[in-house]
Design goal:
- It is a single chain.
- The protein has 2 helices and 6 strands, in the order ααββββββ.
- It has about 120 residues and is an alpha+beta fold.
- The chain has one domain.
- A 4-stranded antiparallel sheet has the order 2-1-3-6, with helices on one face. A two-stranded antiparallel sheet has the order 4-5.
- Strand 1 and strand 2 (about 70-75) form a beta hairpin.
- Helix 1 (about 1-35) runs antiparallel to helix 2.
- The longest helix is centred in the first third of the chain and has 33 residues, at about 1-35.
- The termini are far apart.
Length: about 120
């Protein structure tokens, strides 16, 4: 019983670590995009690159991105048209989801997903 409890705590701890790394990465990516108005041609690609640098522990292929720049939604990691929406005082929002695996001795929690969302004013 003690081994099951310790293993469960370990699995939950790994998930919490991934959540903290994801949250930090999303914050870093949105701050970078909000401060680089007029300096980047593809805000989504820049945020994606910044997210990968800030959260190297997460598998990039498993990350799901949704960008909202000045009210326009982009669901891919490239949005060169988003540069035109980078207006000072508007909002840049990033939502990222990541699948997690909570498993203890073969008992798997189905559809476990962690996510983080952050919005910043474009400078």
């Amino acid at each position: 019983m003690l081994l099951i409890t310790v293993t469960g705590m370990l699995a939950f701890g790994i998930t919490m670590h991934n959540f903290l790394v994801l949250t930090n990465g999303v914050n870093t990516a949105v701050q970078m995009v909000s401060m680089s108005r007029g300096q980047i041609t593809d805000p989504c690609a820049s945020a994606y690159t910044s997210m990968q640098s800030a959260a190297p522990d997460l598998v990039p292929a498993n990350l799901s991105f949704t960008f909202v720049i000045n009210g326009t939604t982009y669901s891919s990691t490239s949005c060169s048209a988003g540069a035109a929406n980078m207006v000072q005082g508007a909002t840049a929002q990033l939502t990222v989801t990541y699948p997690c695996t909570l498993a203890v001795y073969g008992m798997v929690v189905p559809s476990c997903t962690i996510g983080a969302r952050t919005a910043e004013l474009i400078q």
